[in-house]
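We both want to read discrete structure tokens more fluently, so let's practise on a single case. Would you write everything just below, so we can both look at the same thing?
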Amino acid sequence: MKTIYTVTVNPAIDYVITTKTTPDTKGINRNETEEYQFGGKGINVSNMVRTLGGDTVALGFVAGFTGEGLEKGLRQMGLRTDFVHLQEGMTRINVKVRATSDNSEMAINGIGPRIGEKDLDALYQKISMIDKDDILVLSGAVSPGLPRDIYSRIMNRLKDKNVHIVVDTTGEALLDTLKYKPFLIKPNHIELAELGCGDDVIEAAGILQKKGALNVLVSMAEKGAILLDENKKLHTVKAPCGNVINSVGAGDSMVASFLYGYEQTGDYNFALKMGVAAGSATAFCAGLATREHVQRLFDEL
């Protein structure tokens, strides 16, 4: 099976806590539970690929004692990593608060370390070693201080290597990559509307495909997802019923499982069904879903 590489330019340790009631911003709050999760969209993708049994390597930047903790934790989980180690700063910590009384969520995200030109060059060097026909996932918002077109720069360096590139970001950073004909892009329905392609999801997906994307996967929360594939064929899968507990990582789980399913079968409909099952399974869990949970929802679909 092909190796799926992921890039997370600004990974994080997520400190996830639950409270009985919505936090009081003017007083002291007590949490009911707490746990640490190693996050960042690319890392989430790699973790789900690993969970399903695929081959994956997580790339990106880490810094300081929090970066050491993140890297150590991922390796203990069995995930292969090849991070660029920054000399200054620290990998960010994000605080995620969930109130059990009304299932509301609140997040306070850290900033992350400063990344210089030499650090970018080190990442480019690692990416240049990716073999042809492997898969590279570029996901997440571009951090402040980084070139807005960093994903385009990466794709330009790989344009002659036949690497299948997946882009999961938003706005201009996404549009900039379309000229390099990414294998897959995955906006959600809200992000799709923000790109100025109109309110009709299928028509908007078609516009992005005409701009260069080979396959356009659009996640639509409880409505499931659609895929406009490279053969101009439309695939739709409705989401299974369930209680949404956690929205973090659901889209990343969808990307990972879509890629895993496609690599296993070469069937876009099967891949979309896998993606929706995994995205939903993670949404119904406190963290990333297990392989068994994904399989159970896949069978229900």
